[in-house]
Amino acid sequence: MTVGENHSSTGDLIPSSSLAPIPPIPVEENNDKIVEATKQSRMSLEEIDTAIDVGKLKKENQNEKSSTNTTEFTDPHEPNPKFPFGLINKIGIDWIWQCLAIFFAIGAGLGGPCFYLVFQELVDTVIPAAGELPPTDSELQSAINGIALKMVYIALGLGLAEGLKEAFLTIARHRFQAKLKGSFFEALCNQEMGYFDIKKTGNLLSHLSEDVAIVEEAWTSNLAKTFQFMSQFVVGVILSFRASWFQSLMMMCIIPFFSLVAVSGVFVAWSSKLTSNSAARALSTATEVVTGMKTVRSMSGEEKEAKRFNKSLSKVVLASLFKSLATGSAMFFGHLIIWCGVAFSFFIGGILITDGIGGHKITIGTMFQTFGVSLFAVIGLAQTAAEGAQLLKSLASANQLLKVVEREPQITPRGGTRIPPEELKGRIVFENVSFAYPSRPDVVVLENFSLTIEPGQSVALVGESGSGKSTITNLLEKFYLPLTGRITVDGYNLYDIDPKWWRRTIGIVTQEPVLFGMSIEDNIKYASLHGLITDPNISHEEVEESAKKANAHDFIMDLRDKYETLVGERGVGLSGGQKQRVAIARVCLTDPTILLLDEATSALDNESESLVQDALNKLMKGRTTVSIAHRLSTIVDSDKIVVMSKGKIVEMGNHQELLQLGGYYRVLAEKQTMGRSGSSAESLDMIGEVDDE
Ligand SMILES: Nc1ncnc2c1ncn2[C@@H]1O[C@H](COP(=O)(O)OP(=O)(O)OP(=O)(O)O)[C@@H](O)[C@H]1O
Ligand SMILES: [Mg+2]
Q1: Which helix (H) or strand (E) holds 429?
Q2: pLDDT over 50 (residue 691)
Q3: Which residue's CA is minimally distant from atom 3 of ligand 1?
Q4: Ligand 1 centroid distance, CA of 627 (Å)
Q5: Is position 57 within any domain?
Q6: 435 or 341, which is more confident?
Q7: CA quadruple 174, 176, 177, 179: dihedral sign
Q8: b or e along 635-670 (b: 16 or more beta carbons within 10 Å of the residue's beta carbon)?
Q9: pLDDT at position 234, please?
Q10: Are residues 266 and 190 part of one domain?
Q11: What's the domain count of the chain?
């Protein structure tokens, strides 16, 4: 049976080599029309509408910090948080701990000025004012003892305040950080797959580490310290003006000079950012190389990569040179201003002690007190500004986090219709489905795609690379929504079906199964009925049963720790075929109604393939199956074979029907038969047997 009109055009496309890629079949190019139709036809459906909006995505290099140089796209559904403080409300600081920390921070801010109050008493006791008699030795001793005791009290108070502040801050900080990371990660996990196509993984992870750290530090530590230095400033000003308003006023004259430090501070911040960005780029280069070491080595790219890494490092060195200049000048101005201020204060104090100014005279002790507390006030003010700046700076990071936390996923991760068990048969219908990926909205991947898959039927998708086969499985898994048309399952629109329930109802085996860094048993249980890693409802016997069905039990029993064997990151340590069989055992355990196989055996050698294929054949029994395969030998027995090209169906039928049709499928079959056996196309109907040999 022919579905498309184009198969006749395949006659001149017979490949010269059996190893050449599957030949493309020209189909009518009307992508633009589809994109346009897509944008107009379904505007009434809000959710589809949002998917269409993705079509307005603009490419732009958004973030220079990127881990790779790939392009990131603007996200039309990204919220624009107007009030970043909302994050603090939404996530919730632990206000009890935070307020306790602030309370003791204010107390710690009073400590420094209080010392100078007692210091004044000491100086005035030791050095009596002009005309007063010096104290006797015993009077001096008891006065000094009393003052020393007061200092101990202040030290105790200050130590206690600092200690409790830090303790409460640590509690508040960790609790806030956990909540912040948890909310961000949960929001991230709930986003639809299209979101991860348009966002760079490196950037998302840097929000999780860097931005969370900045926000957490700002709204716990910096906030408490702002209060601490504010209290130091206020008390310092009050005490110094109370002691000598004139000397205090002179001391305050140095404040404007701190703008020089502020300017240097801006350069320090800029150069720090430059340094950390360059360092991040160098690190991402290293990560890229280490994770892709096989590819680098196979292409003898070690030297090239070393050069690339050194180039990144030289940028770090240059950036750190700017940073050192900026930091050095900030330190220079800071020290110069403070100590010149101190000198000036003593100069004025000397005049006030001896001659006085306008009848205003002070004692030596008062001079020391005024100098000390006003110095604390000035430092308090400068530090308040610095801590406050950190708070303001953190708003940008809070904004980044809110953009993820507040984003409404375009495909809600849970909730919706669940097909009652008695109605769930596994009949899947694609009705005029058109689709384009959010990151490439102008490339129509599926165009008016219609297909009916009956319950229990095995349907195979074949076609050139990029013809949209995997996209069909992506849509079936509800990772993406069709732009137009709909997919129904037993009469229910997939759009309305609860994705969480649905993904437990279907099982998928892909070319490269991912195993997690946990035991084989937990890996098999991973996709189990309740989606829990250690589901107490699933017994070891059930796991073993699934592994037997998947031809995995024997090799697992040969491993040292058997089912408890830890498989490393991404299952390193197991062969491709072994990993695949663990993945099949995983699917067996969930007992899905519908099975999707996307090149499940493509990456395996013949021996492994036969074990995996045998496991798959057992798994397919009695289930609706959609399988994708390049090797026709694995799909010749399918009830229906769908030949695709450029997102359209060009031929459809069973193996014999398609061979008789003499179109694209026959070309493909001839190519594979000749490639395997060197025989003529007469043996096409034996393709299965030929391949199995
Ligand atoms: N996540 C994605 N974002 C953007 N475009 C994508 C994405 N995945 C696939 N595509 C594009 O969609 C088209 C169809 O891809 P698909 O993976 O469905 O092809 P396929 O038929 O499975 O090919 P293959 O046989 O090579 O696996 C291709 O042009 C591909 O570049
Ligand atoms: Mg594919």
Answers
A1: strand 428-435
A2: no
A3: 437
A4: 16
A5: no
A6: 435
A7: positive
A8: bbebebbbbbbbbbbbbbbebeebbebebbbbbbbb
A9: 94
A10: no
A11: 3
Contact 627, 634 (CB under 8 A): yes
**Is 32 inside any structural domain?**
no
Q: What is the pLDDT of residue 105?
A: 94
Which of 72, 199, 435, 467, when mutated, tests ligand 1's pocket best, judged by the most ligand atoms within 8 Å of its CB? 467
* Ligand 1 close to Cβ of residue 631 (< 6 A): no
- Are 499 and 578 contained in the same domain? yes
Q: Is the CB of 688 under 6 A from ligand 1?
A: no
DSSP string, 166-217: HHHHHHHHHHHHHHHHHHHHHHHHHS-HHHHHHS-HHHHHHIIIIIHHHHHH
CATH number for position 191 = 1.20.1560.10
Average the pLDDT over 401-426 and give the result.
85
Distance 435 CA to ligand 1 centre (A): 11
Counting ligand 1 atoms within 8 A of each CB, the residue from 73, 445, 649 with the most, and so the one to mutate, is 445
468 lines ligand 1 (CB under 6 A): yes
512 touches ligand 1 (CB under 6 Å): no
Q: How many CB atoms lie within 10 A of CB 601?
A: 27
Atom of ligand 1 nearest to the CA of 644: 21
What confidence category does residue 40 fall into, taking pLDDT thresholds of 50, 70 and 90? very low
Give, using CA atoms, the residue closest to atom 4 of ligand 1.
Answer: 437
Give residue 459's pLDDT: 93
Residue 454 near ligand 1, beta carbon < 6 Å: no
Task: Provide mean pLDDT across the span 54-73.
Answer: 39
Q: Work out whether strand 428-435 and strand 648-653 pair parallel, antiparallel, or are unpaired.
A: unpaired
Q: Say yes or no: CB of residue 471 within 6 Å of ligand 1.
A: yes
Phi (first) and psi of residue 627, to 5 degrees? -125, 145
**Taking all residues of the chain, what is their mean pLDDT, rounded to a whole number?**
78
Nearest to 673 by CA among 664, 661, 660, 686: 686
Residue 284 lies in a domain: yes
Atom 31 in ligand 1: which residue has the minimum CA distance? 466
User: How many Cα atoms are found within 13 Å in the side-chain-facing hemisphere of 572?
Assistant: 3
Task: Give the tens place of pLDDT for each residue, 162-214.
Answer: 999 999 999 999 898 888 888 889 998 889 888 888 887 777 887 888 888 88
Mean pLDDT of the region 620-629: 87
Whether the pLDDT of residue 57 is over 80: the answer is no
Same domain, residue pair 542 and 679: yes
Task: Indicate if 491 and 591 belong to the same structural domain.
Answer: yes
Tell me, using a 6 A CB cutoff, whether residue 71 lines ligand 1. Answer: no
Any ligand 1 atom below 6 A from CB of 510: no
Our answer on whether the CB atom of 361 is closer than 6 Å to any ligand 1 atom is: no
Let me know: does 370 contact 240? Beta carbons within 8 Å: yes
Residue type at 541? E
> What single letter denotes the amino acid at residue 371?
F
Amino acid occupying residue 623: R
User: Which of helix, strand or coil describes residue 487?
Assistant: strand
Which residue range(s) make up the domain with 290?
245-361
Residue 70 lies in a domain: no
Residue 424 is part of a domain; what is its CATH number?
3.40.50.300
Q: Which of 60-64, 89-93, 589-593 has the highest mean predicted lDDT (pLDDT)?
A: 589-593
* Residue of 430, 440, 602 to mutate, ligand 1, most atoms within 8 A of C-beta: 440
